[in-house]
Give the backbone structure.
Amino acid sequence: MHTLPLKYTLHLILMAFLTLSSLSHAKGKQIFIGEPSEPQCRTCHDDITAYPMLQKNNRDRHHQLINSTIPPLFQSKAPNAVGANNTGSPYQCLSCHVFRLDPATGERFIIEPFRNCLQCHPVSRVTGPPRRGNNVHHETQTFQQRQCFVCHTRGGMRGGRGGR
């Protein structure tokens, strides 16, 4: 019978431990269960008390974009927005909202509200692992400061607000 030298055996044990530990830890880092939903997005984005780094609620954050320049699609956090192709132009109400005839009066036009975040923000820009995707959440100062626990659970310990 052939035996491995002690240093190789210890190395294999260490690698096995790190792999299992990493897999175990990763299971606690999911934010969404399945595709993100509007209520899951609002769990964080409408809770300024728990997430003061957001500074404003989602409606105000979006409305403060008015008159700022629409970025090129490859830089956009909302490439599916109504006016996303108008790069270089300023954001206006109709860059995101649609006017429609008011069915109650048949005359007035109203701004069509929407509540589905994925209408403008594609899943590929909202989810994904760090450094291997274009997840906007991993472009934040919180991520840069390696404060992952603010959004992610820590194996069931404190922190995290998502699905798991």
User: Anything to note?
Assistant: The chain has one domain: 34-150.
